[in-house]
Amino acid sequence: MHCKRRSLIAAITLSSGLMAGPLYAETLDIGVMGELASFDTSQVSGGVWESQILMDVYEGLLKQNPEGELMPGMATKWEVSEDGETYTFRLREGAKWSDGEPVTAEDFVFGWQHLLDPASASKYAYLLYPIKNAEAVNAGDKPLDALGAESLDGGKTLKVTLESPTPFFLQLLTHYTAYPVPKHAVEKYGDDWVKMDNIVTNGAFKPVEWISQSRISVEKNPEYYDASDVSLDGVNYFTTEDRNAAISRFRAGELDIIRDYPSSRYQWLKDNLPDATHLSPMLGSYYYVLNAREGRPTADARIREALNLVVRRKVLSEQIMAGSFKDAYSLVPPGTSRYEVQRMDGVDGDYQARLAKAKQLIKEAGYGPDNPLNLQLRYNTSDEHKKIAIALAAMWKPLGVNIQMINAEATVHYQTIQQGDFDIARAGWIADYNDAENFLTLLRSGVGNNYGGYSNPEYDKLLDQAANTLDLDKRQQLLQQAENVALDDYALAPLLYYVTRNLVNPSIAGWQDNAEDDHPSRWVTFTE
Amino acid sequence: MLTYTLKRLLQAVPTMLVVITLSFFLMRVAPGGPFDGERQLPPEIEANLKAAYHLDDPLPMQYLRYMGNLLQGDFGPSFKYKDFSVTELIAQGFPVSLEIGGLAILLALLLGLPLGIIAALRRNSAVDYAVMSVALAGIAVPNFVIAPILALVFGVLLAWLPAGGWNGGALPNLVLPVIALSIQQIAYIARMMRASMIEVLGSHYIRTARAKGLSERQVIWRHAIRPALLPVTSYLGPAVAGIITGSVVIEQIFGIPGIGRYFVQGALNRDYTLVMGTVVFYGALIVLMNLLVDLIYSALDPQIRYDD
């Protein structure tokens, strides 16, 4: 099977698009950039590659189609109360775990309690905090059964009560933190329920083998309610941390899909494997944090504006990053549902005019040849971040700004900037769920991920109002208004929007680019 | 000999203790913790994590707990790879690294030793220059350059061998990583063997052997090679330990599930238990290898005796 595919890909590579003979591939080989932390969804470390594997083996109340849109999953119907605080889900008849046991509302309640149990020490438990008492349960202040999730009708109905109306709650349910956990298996095996011999899952595939740092293999789950509609016999996820090596393996026909190829190879791939090279907008923002804490030069809005004015974002995206990013003028990226992209004022158009204005602002702020502006720029070690940092330092040079660049490995970088010890710092945010609030909360006063310590009561107020607004159009207006407040304050320097970068064997169907970069394998088929 | 071996093993205990203690505290002194990352965690979640891994205990208590578990052969759970214990990770990865590394060392000896001997015997000839230039190139070009080139040429362009993957250790998957891993070793060993061979050939007892009228072949085989092997042997101790504990570069490029990358990933993720596990394992291996080298020494050189 492999040999046939290898020769096919070789043929594609050489003749760029010409098809060879028939191919009988029922197993999909995907190169993912890292190792899964655990099949226990409470223990996952947050890598994008982890969601790829987990969404193939588990299914939440809702699932996604190839375009990333929501559709019924383990729940076939749901109702939302008028106040937006109670959701009632009707569980799918005949939904089963891979050992044939039925999937019930109990498994959801159990799974969520397990995730929020302080003893589980789950890193991403906070994603379920919209559920009533979730935060208190997670802090150990309330018992597990105080959680606002109830199994009714002998497990056929799940009633979820929220803390407050959460318009993105359904989006959240596709995240792995909201997957069910097989209560019967955990009761039988304890912590060992995730071992390959014991594990049961409710998705289109079930795990069968795991060679740490090499490969995870899953095969079609015959108990899956839609099994007859799943084309693949199985999927192998190969840990391919060296992404250039992954490209070689793709070209050799050993892999059908590579997630997140290196941006530096984009031009080459586009020229040489045009049919296989995918690049499309993603829900992610690459930005520089400007430290607004007192005592920092960047606490002065004029300095923040000046720094923003002279950044040539098109140069960054098209020349420095060779088209593998999109230039950004806001925090919330395009593709965010129920949101129109906003735009920072004055940061495009005639460069000379922008430069002149920026110089003026720097002067007004009290800096000049006698009192040069020295700023410390921190970034986490990577070639990409380094290139961008150097380019920006050069762009800020005409303002008389001296940039001192400091790089550190990611752990140290984030620890330092969380403590506020910087003027300018590189940061990025990939959406947890498709909603503008997930980005805008980064600038809320006192929030941990608000590295720059930006604080504007008007901004916070608008976000609070949005959180309590059930009318989705009105909520959208409030969120957009909030972002504009921050953009008018030049609260950060938006630089680039992330894009999804995937190499996909052209003979695959059912694989669509989407802003969340979620690609459930259950839709994938080989066309030849 | 047995007494000597036992004595050496006993001496290793304090050494290991120092290694473990130093690594334990150095790791904790390093800035950044296992749960620091892009996303700052809510305080209650951080508290849960710290409690789950006993990181909220005072450091000396954490140390004692670790030593206690270690004495029972328990390296603890990995902070990052939750479905495996550190012991399981090492047990799964080491045989793979051992296989690749062992083959690479074997290949390096099979090619490096003869090349070095030939170069020494044909000193300053075209053969010598050729061997030494190639060896110098082998040392100079790092394996993170060689490995992708091998994968590209033999995996992609010629399609003779897999460009990566382990595939349960199938022979075709072994070829490229073993070659990539051995090239530098071949070069080192050839150069070392040449130098030591030249030195031996100039010594008095070789002159004596020749004066006795032994044939050149007898001189070389019976009198020159054995002593010339000594420096190579002492090099091999740490080299073998280094190679069979895996190479992070080779493992990443070829997607091999060895333990090499745990050293780097453990450190980068501040996966304390994983780092400690690999350090203890590597330390023990070095001690064993050095002991082995000393024992081989005595077999090679009759002047070296390890009697009591």
What does this structure look like?
The complex is a heterodimer of chains A (528) and B (308). The two termini of chain A are 13 Å apart. In chain A, helix 9 (301-309) packs antiparallel against helix 11 (351-364) and helix 15 (457-467) runs antiparallel to helix 16. Chain A is an alpha+beta fold. Chain A has helices at residues 2-15, 48-57, 105-116, 134-138, 169-172, 183-189, 243-251, 266-272, 301-309, 313-320, 351-364, 383-396, 410-418, 437-440, 457-467, 472-488; strands at 27-32, 62-64, 70-72, 75-80, 86-91, 149-152, 157-161, 205-211, 215-220, 234-239, 257-259, 277-290, 326-327, 373-380, 401-408, 424-430, 492-504, 508-509, 525-526. Chain B is mainly alpha-helical and 308 residues long. In chain B, helix 6 (143-157) runs parallel beside helix 10. Chain B is globular. Chain B starts with a helix and ends in an 8-residue tail after the last helix. The mean pLDDT of chain B is 88.
Helix content of chain A: 25-40%
Estimated structural class of chain A: alpha+beta
Report the portion of residues of chain A in β strands: 15-25%
> How many strands appear in the DSSP assignment of chain B?
0
Rg of chain A, rounded, reads 25 Å
The biggest chain-chain interface is:
A-B, 59 and 52 residues
Class of secondary structure makeup of chain B: mainly alpha
Q: Biggest β-sheet of chain A, characterized?
A: 11 strands, mixed
Question: Which strand-content bin applies to the residues of chain B?
Answer: under 5%
Helical element count of chain A?
Answer: 16
Mean pLDDT across all residues of chain A, rounded? 91
Distance from N terminus to C terminus of chain A (CA atoms, Å) equals 13 Å
Helix content of chain B: over 70%
The oligomeric state is: heterodimer
The biggest sheet of chain B amounts to: none
What distance separates the N and C termini of chain B?
Answer: 8 Å
Shape summary of chain A? globular
Topology order of chain B in helix (H) and strand (E) letters: HHHHHHHHHHHH
Number of DSSP-assigned strands of chain A = 19
- Low-pLDDT windows of residues of chain A: 1-25
Radius of gyration of chain B: 24 Å
